[in-house]
Structures are given as structure tokens and as C-alpha cells.
Amino acid sequence: MTDNAIAAGGNDRWLYLFIAWIVAVAASLGALFIGEVVGQAPCSLCWHQRAFMFPLAVLLAVASFRSDSGAWLYALPLAAIGAAIAGFHSLLYAGLIPEGIQPCSQGPSCAGAGMIILSMLPLPYLSLAAFVAIAIALLGSRTKAAS
């Protein structure tokens, strides 16, 4: 491989990290806006998803700044666990999970009308999309094996 090809691969990896960071920041700011400005209290599953999204915004900022090609090793587990919680929340919102195992017995409903923003976008689906987009970008940022 030429030096230019190696440098181009490094730029691609950085771009994937940067995209993952932008998605994490947008999702974090969106969650804060919905809670603090709109005044909509988060349900228990939303709190759990925030616990995985907020650190991603910080970790991916540092990884992007440092062009850390190994960032996917520590950020991908956070994105995967967050996606699993968001997936469960999405199934709950869609009505595919029986009432007996719904975690929201107190506080805001995890599947109620309050889970929609802009009168058409379900928050659980947006969260799932953000975690999946971050995971895909992190997979794209991996260092390619030398051939």
C-alpha cells in the first residue's frame, strides 16, 4: 500500500468516528431538550438509554479528537447495550411485549402518548436508530487488517 492509500484509510476511519460522535451528541442534546425544555419526564427505559448514550458523546469526542482507531473496542459495547434497551423499548411501544413484563409500573409510561415528538416520531424508534447508526459507524471505523 502507498502512503497516500494508508492516509486515506485513516481519514475514512476518523470520518466514521466523527459521524458516530455527531449522532451521539445529537441524541444526547435531543434527550435533554425533550426533558428540560419540553418538560416531558423520561420513563425508566429512557433513563437507562441515556446512561449509555451520554457517555458515548464524551468518549467519541475524545476518540475523534485523538483519531483513536481502537475506539470501537470500548464504544461499541455501550452502543450495543443501548441498542438492546432501545430495541426492548421499541417492542414495548409497538405493543409486542405483554403487560406482565413491562418495567414502567410507576412514573411516565414507556409506551404512552408521551413517547412521541413532533406528533409523529416515536422516541423509542429514534433512540434505536441512533444506537444502530453509532454501532454501524463504529464498525466502519475499525482498522482494516493488513494484507
How do the strands and helices of this protein lay out in sequence?
Blueprint: H1 3-37, H2 44-66, H3 71-93, E1 116-117, E2 121-122, H4 123-140
Q: What is the CATH third-level topology name? A: Bromodomain-like
CATH-level-2 architecture: Up-down Bundle
| Number of self-contained structural domains | 1
Order of helical and strand elements: HHHEEH
Structural class: mainly alpha
- The CATH class is identified as Mainly Alpha
Q: Averaged pLDDT, please?
A: 82
Beta strand %: under 5%
Tally of alpha and pi helices = 4
Query: What shape does the CA trace take?
Result: elongated
Measure the end-to-end span. 9 Å
Largest sheet: spatial strand order:
1-2
Query: Low-confidence spans: pLDDT under 50, at least 5 residues?
Result: 1-8
User: Largest beta sheet, briefly?
Assistant: 2 strands, antiparallel
| Rg computed from alpha carbons, rounded to a whole number of angstroms | 17 Å
Describe the fold and architecture.
This protein is mostly helical and 147 residues long. The chain has a single domain (3-140), classed as Bromodomain-like, CATH 1.20.1550. 67% of the residues lie in helices and 3% in strands. It is built from 4 helices and 2 strands, in the order H-H-H-E-E-H. A two-stranded antiparallel ribbon has the order 1-2. The chain is elongated.
Summarize the structure.
By secondary structure, this protein is mainly alpha-helical.
Task: Supply database-style keywords.
single chain, 147 residues, mainly alpha, Bromodomain-like, two-stranded antiparallel ribbon, 4 helices, 2 strands, elongated, disordered N terminus
